[in-house]
């Protein structure tokens, strides 16, 4: 335990460490208090138009701090929040906050927010989103909801109904981390996605000729289905050059911009026209 490591040991949650039941319970307690005690916030990462360099959208990424200020990564707290159900209220908070901070404030023409399947199983979710947009007077097409192919939602009729209802409202549905889940290809056929985000591992693997060919095949598949595409995890100028060669329209990654606070996102946006 951290205590056994001496008084200087900072309690950083290491996702590679096996999680104990105790840690799980501690995180569940933090999640319970997160909204009341301001332990949760949003970071924003730009999704960039490759041809123009402009910010096409911001993706909202949830951040959580323990009571002592220790950051707890999403890979650790999101699964716990899904198990306890805390993701429902946290997810609603994230949607409302991101719509206010990005769309209402005019920081980008589009916003994407990550969604858990647990939220989609809530029958009232599409109505909640519709209410939010009309209350803030926002165009439904300015909002995209990202769904990860983590578990098989395509066989859950409630989830499929919710997705159809959201699409009917004019909201975009994006498939996140494409190529990493087990149901990926059938999802492309059965769900009315607007855009596919190709998981960063494929760009990483594209440094070899075989990896590059494979990525190009994936891009072609997505394009042929009439879907837009974002390549995730652009970290180097070489990868950026590949994107230009392959005419990938949209990209995201540390090379183009890390997730930042809303204030930094605002100045990032201002920096674009000011530099011209
Ligand atoms: P994601 O939606 O696929 O988000 C992309 C993740 O990759 C983010 O990690 C981001 O910081 C990271 N990333 C971005 N560019 C690069 C890059 O160039 N290189 C590398 N190595 N990483 C990059 P983060 O913020 O830790 O989030 C992890 C995951 O947690 C997200 O993956 C998403 O599935 C989930 N998540 C985050 N916020 C929320 C939320 O509000 N609701 C739900 N349900 N899930 C969320
Ligand atoms: Mg995402
Ligand atoms: Mg992703
Ligand atoms: Mg991911």
Automatic annotation (TrEMBL):
Key words of the record: Membrane, Transmembrane, Transmembrane helix
EAL domain ranges (all copies): 24-273
Keyword set includes ATP-binding: no
Superkingdom in the source lineage: Bacteria
Name of the protein described by the UniProt record: EAL domain-containing protein
Organism: Jiella sonneratiae
Residues of the whole record sequence present: 386 to 661 of 661
